[in-house]
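Data card: per-record layout.
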Amino acid sequence: MKVLITAGATWVKVDEARILTNRFSGKTGLYLAKALKNKGHKVTLIINPHCVGEVKGPKAVCYHYFSEFKAQVLKCLREERFDAIIHTAAVSDYRPKNTFKGKAPSGKSKLRLELVPLPKVITSMRRLAPKAKIIQFKLQANRKNLIQAAFRSLKENKSDFVVANSLKDLSSGCKRFVINGAKEVVSVNSQKQLALVLDKIVRAGS
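The structure for this 206-residue chain is written out next.
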């Protein structure tokens, strides 16, 4: 099966020297790309290599900034048909309304940034790949109402599955919950187990 996987954080510019981003490395997406490639799938990985370095194994398409990420996703989906999309990338929700020219001066007592929402790339994924299985990832601050919030996100984004976890789960290992459109939940406790579950999802109906 042909699988598109996204991974890593997307950057947005504050000025020519500074960025806003998050702490996610893309290692989960890279692990899944290698695991599914080893299972015989044809994998394309769209990844920010900043934290993982050179990517060896799966076909890699690299980006750093949100604008580059969005452009690469759209390009891949317009040029190829994928059976499944595994969207693990930690995509920026906001960008500064205005960026500073050159480098914002240091030493100020206050530096105010006004943030505005960025477009949801997953919406374009569904539009450009209407028949693909879309497996999105959802992170919440805590476990309370996690399943409900993840399921609501699945419905809003017209995804087929959502992999959900909380910040607390991140600190205690690889606890995740895989939820489908019928709100059935499978609990996984390792990257290896997650890869096995996703492999079954990708193969189902092939």
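Known properties of this structure: Residues 9 and 90 are 5 Å apart (CA to CA). The longest strand covers residues 133-140.

See the next section for split statistics.
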